[in-house]
Structures are given as structure tokens and as C-alpha cells.
Amino acid sequence: MATPLSDERPQLTLVKETPETARVFEFEKRPRPAWMMSGEQLRQWAVYAKDNTVDAVRFHATHSPYYLGWSVRGYRRLCLRWWEARQDDYRQQLATAKQMIREAKSQPRGSTRAADEAKARALRTVLRAEYRGHKRQHWIRTGVSGLIVVAGATTAVTMGSWWVQLLLALAVIFTGAYFGRPEEPAVKPIQAPTRTSHLGEETMRRVLVESGAISEKRAEEVRGVGLPHTEGPGIAYEVDMPSGIPAAVAVTKKQQVAAALAVHQDWLDLEVGAIESRLKIWVASDDPFSVVRRSPLLDQKGEINTFRDGIPVAFGKRGNPIILHVRDTSLIVGGATRRGKGMLLANILLGVAKDPWVNIRIFDGKGTAEHNLYAPLMATFVKRNPERLAIVSRLIKEEIDRRSDLLDEHGYEKIDDSNYAEVMKLLGGREVFIVDELATYTPKGTSRWDEEITENLSQIAAVGAALGVLLISITQVPEVDVIRGRLRQNHVGRAAMKTESGTASNTILGDGMTGQGYDASKIPIDQAGRFWLATPETGVIQGRSYLVTADDKRQVAAEAREIREHAVRLPWQWHDPIEAQLTAETGITSAAGGPGGKGRIGSAPVALTLLDHLIDAAAGTGRDEATRAEVFAYLATVDDRYGYRVDETDGQYNARVGKVLAAAMKAEGLDIKAVKVSTAEGKEARGFRLDDLIAAR
Ligand SMILES: Nc1ncnc2c1ncn2[C@@H]1O[C@H](COP(=O)(O)OP(=O)(O)OP(=O)(O)O)[C@@H](O)[C@H]1O
What we know:
Blueprint: H1 34-37, H2 39-62, H3 64-87, H4 90-106, H5 111-159, H6 162-179, H7 201-210, E1 223-231, E2 234-240, H8 247-252, H9 254-261, E3 268-272, E4 278-284, H10 306-309, E5 311-315, E6 321-324, E7 331-334, H11 341-353, E8 358-364, E9 380-383, H12 386-409, H13 420-427, E10 430-436, H14 450-463, E11 469-475, H15 485-490, E12 493-496, H16 502-509, E13 530-535, E14 539-545, H17 550-566, H18 577-586, H19 610-620, E15 625-627, H20 628-638, H21 650-667, E16 675-678, E17 684-689, H22 690-696
Parallel strand pairs: 7-11, 7-12, 8-9, 8-10, 10-11
Antiparallel strand pairs: 1-2, 2-4, 3-4, 5-6, 5-14, 12-13, 13-14, 15-17, 16-17
Helix pairs in contact: 3-6, 4-5, 7-9, 12-14, 12-18, 19-20, 19-22
This protein binds adenosine-5'-triphosphate (ATP).
């Protein structure tokens, strides 16, 4: 018995498998517009369309004076076209035929001349006939279309109602306007707008999402507050973050925000606004420190009260002046060589020089001529003399005690704006005590007095400010053995010019500052004078000092001299207890730079080398370089061998002192080559650059 076929077995068939029917391509369903699907949407659409129409009518109505102008231009263009069509290029062709006749006539008599002339004349005749025909045709076409237009218009005007006339008038204007459209687009597209110039709500949404401060789905919740507006060289704006997200989140993403805006993070300010969720942003589309600015003090005449008003020494990111209150913040300025420490000091000096109540005392450890111009104003001015610094710093410490007692005796708690004038008279002014180049004085082993100097300066920095004694220390060697821990800590204000390394930057600004983004080693090399400043009043900010030229210094020194003379505050006009004591102890004064007026004083000055003199000579020109002639002239003031001899010609003099200099340089082991420099008149000459000389030191 045959077993029944199991269900699982495939059915056998003799017919080949039928191929699958070809798939019909399926279109995606066409989406229907929302207004078709719902009455509500349709009503909205109608309102929208109506508003648009009203807007369009209003816009075009207010622009009708333009369209009338276009229309006039359009009809003029049509007339020109009509005239050109009438001429076609027959005139040109006729002119060519006439030229051909002239050329044929100019040929020598003969068969070719006659034949060429005949051919040209025949051509002219044919062209004239064709031209006449063309003009006739043109007139007929003009006549017919003109007749239709005139008849139609007359009928419409005479028989049509007012709206037909209106339509006709509009058609006339429209036709003219159409042909009279301006050839250039009326509004030129703004040229390559920078991304930052579009700072607004939309940009901020994108930027905050791209920087990772908020998620994409919350971007719509970012709201602009007020309008983006220009502030200094950039644009300022405020936005409210989505609820629950503090603005501080965006502030921590400064680098990413800067990247999203396509700017450097130094060109950007991010701050938390009046409420936690409000973000204040300021951004420039270019480096705000790439410019050089002049001190506003140079235009200010008369005396200055630096205690009350401070000194504008630099400009900030937004072009705003950075005011240094030389009042209760001792300051340390550090940075690599030629990076602008001296320029910041020059700005401070502009202010204090014109404040008659400030006793300026400078200990210049570099020994250059940088401060010589101010010498006549200075209560104390000494170059490279550690022993004298040790004495003066001790005397200033004693002066602090004297001041404290005096204030106490007279019932003053401290110096402030209300008692300023009386207290100044009582104390004999404020002290601004500047040590320019700590490395000459404080590192271990530089002199017998290094410990004493470091200790005295640390104490003055710590307690002096409250009693009107302010210390400003400068160093190009920001290393811990130069600015020993206590000395640095006691300087409340710190300014770091470009440094060689992040460690050097931290030595000035404080440990861990690079980690927070305050790294002076990252300051661009081509922006001398730029710095990070940390003071209690300013917080940590960036700035660039104003440029002060040698001429500016001269001008200010002269003004300051008058101001101080008038106020009876020039060094010899008032009793200075510190200089009196110093003279008693050492037998020599250093008021106004001492007897020579250049700060070279004392029984044991650091011996000045030839290199010191060369540096003085180059710095003294105000151009940071000196020609050989200028160097010789300077050396002649310190060494007789460089002076002119009787009967010596210029050539002989130059040859002789050139040899003396070469021999002296060799003896000191100085290997500095004379290079091309500019003279004061801008010509070329051989000489020495200050940078090279300082590098040699
Ligand atoms: N704010 C500034 N704007 C423009 N140029 C500046 C500025 N500051 C400094 N410079 C330029 O840099 C040069 C060096 O500046 P400065 O003499 O102040 O440096 P320094 O750090 O004191 O040098 P040194 O190491 O010799 O003490 C200046 O001669 C000037 O040309």
C-alpha cells in the first residue's frame, strides 16, 4: 500500500517555476499641504497670505517713486532700441562701402582701380536700396503696433471705467519699469561677512551647541537679551541660557566657543551676567592687541593725583584703559628680555612724574640710560649699587615706622581721599620705590647684601602700601632664586610680560596660573608690551602698555619739572629724611641721580664695563641702537681716549677710536659685530643694536 504524501514534501510539478512579476516602482505618497488637511491650517494660511499681500502692496506702493524713475529709464531704453533696430547695421555697412570707394579711387589709374571702384559703388547702391527697404518695413511695423497700442489705450481711456484706466496706467508704468530695471542689484550683498559680525541669537544657539555647552534639542530655548552692539573693537551681546543651565558652563568652554566663532580665545570675553543663567559675550574679529596705542596721559596737562585717579598704564582687550592704582598694591613685573617691562614702567613714570606728592626712588640694576631723563625729578636715583640699595631699603623700612608713628600721633588711621592733602604734608609725600632688575641685587651670591636686600624688600612690599610706600620690582629673570618665595608673595600686584616658559610665568603670576589659562609664555612674540596683570582691583586680565617714546619722556620730564618746581617738590626744594640720612651715612647724595645726575654713585658701585657703556649709548639714543659715531661720542664722556685730539681730522679720529674700541672689546672678550643701523636722520650707518648688546650681557 502506497504511503500518503507527507505534508512537508514539496509538491512536484512539471512546469518550470514562474518568474516573479516585475515590481512596480512605488512612489512615496505625496505629502499634502497642511492647509488641505485642516480647516484651522487653511484659515492660518489665508491670514498669512492676506498679510503677505498687504505687506507687498504697502512695500511696492512706498517704492512707487523708484518705479516711476525706472519707468522713465525703461522708455528711454526702448526708444534707443527702436532707433538701433531702425539703423540695423546698414550705416556701418554703407560707411564701409564708401571707404572702399575712396580706397579704389586712391589706387593708380588702371583697370583694377576702375573695376574696384565700380564694385564698391555697386555695393553702395545695393546697400542703400536695402536700407530704404528696411526703413520702410520698420516704419510699417512701428505704425501697426503703434496704432494697436494707441487705439487700445484710447478706447480703454475713453470707454473703460476708472479701474481699467488704473490698470492701464499700471501696465504703462510696469512695462517701463520692467525695461528700466537697474542693471546692478540695488542692494549690494555685504562683502564676506565675518562669522562674528553675525553675533546674534541664531549664532549663539549654534555656538553653544557646537561648543557642547547645551544640547541641540535645547538650542531653541536660548534667548537673546537686548541687541548685539559694538563695544571697542568688538561686539557685545547677552543671552539667557536654557532654564537650569548656568552660564558658567559656557564660560568653562571658552576655547570651544572661540573655535565655534572662528576666533582666538584671546579675542573673546565670556562672563556670567546679572543672573546665573545670563551669559555675557564680547568678541572681536581681529586681535585687539595687535595695535599700538599712545598714552592718554600725554595729552593731559597739569598735575595728576595718582592716589585718587590712578595711572592709565595700558589698554585692555576692549581698548579700555587699565588703571593702576599706585596706592595700595605693590607690583612685581617680570618677563623675558625686550618684552616691554621697561615700557610698563615708563607708563607708570609718566603718571608719578606729574604727581608732585610722589617721591620717586629708582634703583636701576641694568645701568642703562633709560631713566636718565627723569633724574632731575627723582628723590633717589642710583645705578647698579647693591650696597646703597641695602642702605636705602633699610632706611625705607625705618621710614615706614616713622610714618606709622606720625599718623598715630596725629590721630589718622590711614591715608584716604578725605585726609590726603594734610597727611601728605605731614609725611612728606608718598614713596614710589622702584627696583629695576632684581637679578642685579637679590640672587644669592651677587653681593654681600643680597640677603639683606631680599628681606628688606619683602618687608616693604608687605607693609609699606598702607603707609604710602609702594614697591615696584622688575625682573627679566623670573626664577625662584631671583624672586624668592616671600618676596613674590608680598607683591600683591603682578604683571607678566612674555616669558620663556610656563614655569617662569607661574613664578610671576603664582603657582597653577598656567593651568587656569593665564600663561604669559603664550603671549605672541611680536606684541611687546602685552602682559597678564593680576591685582585685587582688576582680577587677572590681559593688557598691552601704551607706547612711550623718548620724545614723550622728554616732554613729560619737562612738564613734570615745572609742576614740581611750582609745588616746591623738586629734590632740593624739600627736606627728604631718607636722602639726608643716606648722605650722613655715605657722605654722598643720590638725590636727582647724585652729583653727576646719572645715578652713578657711591663708594662701591658695581664696576661699569665697556658693555655697560655701550648699552647706555644705544639706549640713550631713543632708537634702541647707536651708530659708531654716537658710541664714540658717548664713550668720550666716560673715557678720555675716545675724545677728539687737537688737529685730528674726522677720518683720523674715526680710525683711531675705532681701533681703541676694537682693542677694548677684545680685552673684555666681547664678540659683537657692528651691523647696519639707522642714524637719527633715517640714513644707514654702521653701529650696534641694543638687543645684541643686551644679549651679550
Ligand atoms: N606697549 C608697547 N607697544 C609697542 N611697542 C612696545 C611696547 N612695549 C615695548 N615695545 C617695544 O619693545 C621694545 C622693548 O621694550 P622694553 O625696553 O620695555 O623691554 P624690556 O623688557 O624692559 O627690556 P630689557 O630686557 O632690556 O629690560 C621697546 O623698545 C619697544 O620698541
